[in-house]
Amino acid sequence: YLRRGNYNVILVDWSPLAALPWYSAAVINCHTVGRYLADFLEFLINKEYISIMDVHLIGFSMGAEIAGFTGQELGERGLKLPRITGLDPAYPLFNYASGILRLSKEDAMFVDIIHTDGGVLGFPSQIGHVDFFPNSGRDKQPGCNRISTFLRGSFEDLALLGNC
Fold it and tell me: Which range marks the domain in which residue 96 is found?
């Protein structure tokens, strides 16, 4: 993509709706954010600024769940996303939910999942069309320390990840 130069990246900052101390409120707000993102994408598609076939949503933790809700919402409007990539989709409070209440393979034509924190903060089981489990997908990956600052979502903190 970088060489071709024909791409757009949209970052969704939903930090006011995801702020601590109430994780449960953030879970509920995932639905709202997904609906607003679907509204925005539908606007871009209807104005022919983008094609639905060029949209690839990528989300980490609750962001992966938001991508799923966005896909569900667009699907109800007759627009099927071609691809969603979930990076450690959130597990707490999503673990007993059915596919309509969390990211699932029905949310896009192709859903791929990368599990690196399964059973703790990330979903431990297969939920996509293709699921990758590096180093068995379990908590505490080799060469990776738990970095609480990364969980704040700050781009400056990405440099702290080192081998992760």
Answer: 15-161
